[in-house]
Amino acid sequence: MQAVAVQHHLGIRRQWIRRILSSSSSPSSSPSSHSPPPLPAATSSSANRISISSSSSSSSSMASASPLNNNSRWAQKTITIPPLPRGCHLLTSKILKEIGHDLSSFKCGLAHLFLQHTSASLTINENYDSDVREDTETFLSTIVPEGNSAPWKHTLEGPDDMPAHIKSSMFGCSLMIPITDGKLNMGTWQGIWLCEHRDEATPRRIVITLNGIGM
Questions:
Q1: Of 88, 147, 150, 155, whose CB is crowded by the most CB atoms within 10 A?
Q2: How confident is the model at residue 147 (pLDDT cuts 50, 70, 90)?
Q3: Residues 197, 198, 200, 203: what is their CA dihedral angle, to the nearest 10 degrees?
């Protein structure tokens, strides 16, 4: 219907132009004869209308639209873990010992842990049965080839170095944990692991950043 209306308008304009051209040679033609004929009234069909509605309500439905709480807090600390043997190690108690004082001042927030190394990793997993950590190390050693027969080109730092880089990328170097009422809000059986992927490890640094609302 919209296309028909456009064609109709074009037809009226063509008639108007022909009338002007035909009357321009006659001196008796008056200016009023040049005025275009009235266009037809717009159709009321809903097919020809685009309706844009907006709410006049001033209230927001998103909590994030509220102003920042004046009680927001930040804290950051870098801790150093002494060299550990190759494998997966439970670090939850060590982490809490280092950040416990600052952590207790947060009502709600996030704890971000960032490992500053490329041959170790962080992950969250079983905190009770040590067999899980041993089995995880067995899995990693099985799935990533190692030794002189492995296909890796990067061997300048030893045959275990390139496999360590791969394992580090598999688990990652950072964690994000919610904070609730001054505590890390993890599951009952969850713990923070540092996975050491080198045969001869060096000290490992972890940057811990806390952000949230204070008590």
A1: 88
A2: confident
A3: -60
Domain encompassing residue 157: 72-214
CA–CA distance from 182 to each of 101, 109, 167, 176, 187 (Å)? 9, 9, 33, 15, 15
> Any residues with CB less than 8 A from the CB of 112 and at least 6 apart, and which?
174, 175, 176, 177, 208, 209, 210, 211
Residue 29 located in a structural domain: no
Count of domains in the chain?
Answer: 1
In a domain, 41, yes or no: no
- Do the domain assignments include residue 17? no
Helix, strand or coil, per DSSP, at residue 159: coil
Model confidence at 13, pLDDT cuts 50, 70, 90, reads: low
- Report yes or no on 35 lying in a domain: no
If residue 103 lies in a helix (H) or strand (E), which one and from where to where?
Answer: helix 92-103
Q: Is the pLDDT of residue 188 over 70?
A: yes
Helix (H) or strand (E) holding 213: strand 204-214
Q: What's the predicted TM-score (pTM) here?
A: 0.68
CATH number at residue 210: 2.60.120.460
Diameter of the chain by CA atoms? 109
Q: Which residues of 63-99 are buried (b: 16+ CB within 10 A; e: fewer)?
A: eeeeeeeeeebebeeebebeebebbbbbbeeebeebb
